[in-house]
Amino acid sequence: MATDNRIDWKWLEGTYWYCAADSMPAIQGQGTHSFGWVIDQTVWSITGYRDGYFWGVASVLLTKAGETPDPAGKKDMTFLASITPEGQVYIAFIRSAVASTVGTGRVTSHLEKPSFEMQMSSGPGAAVTLHWAYMMQVRPGDPEWTCLPGAGVSVESMVGDIEPPVPVPPG
Predict the structure, then answer these.
(1) 17, 27, 94, 169: least CB-packed within 10 angstroms?
(2) Adjacent-strand bridge partners of 139
(3) Where are the beta strands (DSSP E) in the chain?
(4) Does 27 reside within a domain?
(5) This prediction's pTM
(6) Is 167 domain-assigned?
(7) Distance linking the first and last C-alpha atoms of the chain
(8) How confident is the model at residue 103 (pLDDT cuts 50, 70, 90)?
(9) Residue 20 pLDDT more than 50?
């Protein structure tokens, strides 16, 4: 008889994640033949989970390398995601009816803590931003909860005012 060793990902519901300081650098197109470096601080709030799917809200603050972050420039979005029993992840971040970002990755560990190892691409045409990162769990009381690296603001100020997506009742 086979044993089902799949992980129950229900524990993700109600968790918060941020981009680890050592994986914030990203690359951004500056036309068809050039690019620049940016610092990408992304925060997720996973508000729900069911049957291998999770959803929530996210905010991204991109800052040109060497410049001071301006939290007023953050981009808010919702997301819908799938996670396989083995921890492979696919996330669609939705900014508007016509703007979305795709992220793929897996649940792993980084610095001996649970993390999502993710890759994403986003943006119109030559202004595309590409980024890979370790998304680390963050909780109230952690130093990053009140002062995110690469943003200088709290988790709550990044995602606390975004309306989360909700399932539509059948009918």
Answers:
(1) 169
(2) none
(3) 16-19, 25-29, 35-50, 53-64, 75-83, 88-94, 100-110, 113-122, 129-138
(4) yes
(5) 0.91
(6) no
(7) 39
(8) very high
(9) yes
How far is the C-alpha of 120 from the C-alpha of 104, rounded, in Å? 6
CB 162 within 8 A of CB 59: yes
Residue 46 within a domain: yes
CATH code at position 146: 2.40.128
Cα–Cα distance between 147 and 18 in angstroms, integer?
11
- Specify whether the CB–CB gap between 49 and 67 falls below 8 A: no
Closest listed residue to residue 165, CA positions, set 71, 79, 45: 79
CA–CA gap between residue 149 and residue 141 (Å, rounded): 15
Count: domains in the chain: 1
As to burial, measured by CB atoms within 10 angstroms (0-12 exposed, 13-18 middle, 19+ buried), residue 113 is: exposed
Which residue range forms the structural domain that includes residue 107? 11-158
Going from the C-alpha of 22 to that of each of 62, 85, 90, 109, 123, the distances in angstroms are: 15, 28, 22, 14, 23
